[in-house]
UniProtKB/TrEMBL annotation:
<dbReference type="InterPro" id="IPR023168">
    <property type="entry name" value="GatB_Yqey_C_2"/>
</dbReference>
<dbReference type="Pfam" id="PF09424">
    <property type="entry name" value="YqeY"/>
</dbReference>
<dbReference type="InterPro" id="IPR003789">
    <property type="entry name" value="Asn/Gln_tRNA_amidoTrase-B-like"/>
</dbReference>
<dbReference type="InterPro" id="IPR042184">
    <property type="entry name" value="YqeY/Aim41_N"/>
</dbReference>
<keyword id="KW-0808">Transferase</keyword>
<dbReference type="GO" id="GO:0016884">
    <property type="term" value="F:carbon-nitrogen ligase activity, with glutamine as amido-N-donor"/>
</dbReference>
<dbReference type="GO" id="GO:0016740">
    <property type="term" value="F:transferase activity"/>
</dbReference>
<protein>
    <submittedName>
        <fullName>Aspartyl-tRNA amidotransferase</fullName>
    </submittedName>
</protein>
<dbReference type="InterPro" id="IPR019004">
    <property type="entry name" value="YqeY/Aim41"/>
</dbReference>
Length: 147
């Protein structure tokens, strides 16, 4: 089932349950995907849909960080609830061990030995973990392994 179909089904369920919060998030996700389709002028493939979902998740995580810094507990709870809904549509996240193994493999393949070659590693790893791991987490592990 395509992501758009899945979102439409969940939207109907949320409408019937009168779950306004879930309905709002689903509508935002659907809107983002449709806007991307219009921008590209074609139907999105799975990878492009994943890119849109990842962007939406990153925006919410960034907002969460900012709201926590500003001590806006009312908004923190709202964004946490939105993140939980978006996570439902994301692929299963990689564990720390799986991520470390992928990065170690990339370091061996690229022959990287220092921080100067950090970009090569990130370039090799990010396409493999797209949507399955947070870029900041990949960044942190890669830096630890290169030291």
């Amino acid at each position: 089932m395509s992501l758009l179909t899945w979102l439409n089904e969940d939207m109907k369920t949320a409408m019937k349950a009168r779950d306004k919060e879930k309905l709002t998030v689903i509508r935002m996700l659907k809107s983002s995907i449709q806007n991307e389709q219009i921008k590209l002028g074609k139907e999105l493939n799975d990878e492009e849909e994943l890119t849109v979902l990842s962007r939406e998740m990153k925006q919410r995580k960034d907002s969460l960080t900012e709201f926590e810094k500003a001590n806006r507990e009312d908004l923190v709870e709202k964004v946490k609830a939105e993140i939980a809904i978006v996570e439902k549509y994301m692929p299963e996240q990689l564990t720390q061990e799986e991520l470390t193994a992928i990065i170690t493999d990339a370091i061996q393949q690229t022959g990287a030995t220092s921080m100067k070659e950090f970009g090569k590693i990130m370039g090799a790893v990010m396409p493999k973990v797209k949507g399955k791991a947070d870029g900041s987490q990949v960044n942190m592990i890669a830096k630890q392994l290169l030291k």
